[in-house]
Amino acid sequence: MSADRQTLKVYDTQAAEYETRVAQRSTPGLSEFITALPQSAYVLDLGCGPGLSARAMMDHGLTVDAVDGSPAMVARASELGVSARQELFQDVSGTAEFNGIFANFSLLHMPRCDMPDMLNRLHTLMKPEGIIHIGLKLGSGEARDRLGRFYAYYQQDEIEALLTSAGFLPYAHILGAGEGLDGWSSEWIVIQAKKVTNG
């Protein structure tokens, strides 16, 4: 999760409401992400929230390393039997560890200027042919919602170019719109891409 204190405070104080109003909906692209991975794959759930997607991946036989910057979200995920821990985006590190990275509407809380470096680091974290899933809100620039959460917005061609520059090959996307925790409807995109390795 982002280190933005206002954003983290919202998730800490409204974790239960977020789970009920947002996280319990079906997760676009989750089943496709699971299907694309090898059996018993090792997955990083980056910004796991209350852990519902991590639990679903575990139920399909995947091993999930679930992290979130909000202690309240980590606690809710742990109640589902998810081995979750508190960690911020900038603290995630490693080399060739994961078959998949699931960043479902989490990296949108990170400043746009940090996205290229973050994607490079995630590329390093992944094993050859690894799959990344990213959910973002469509738009431009940066802003806070009426709850005070920080958001960075992207256009489809923009995030695809950033993924390509970081060494990923985008191969699927889903477009949609829906109401968030703040009660406003936003357009969004989910993109899935494969790690490209040289040689």
Automatic annotation (TrEMBL):
GO terms for biological process: methylation. It comes from the Bacteria. Keywords: Methyltransferase, Transferase. GO terms for molecular function: methyltransferase activity. InterPro entries: SAM-dependent_MTases_sf. Pfam families: Methyltransf_23 (PF13489). This is Class I SAM-dependent methyltransferase.
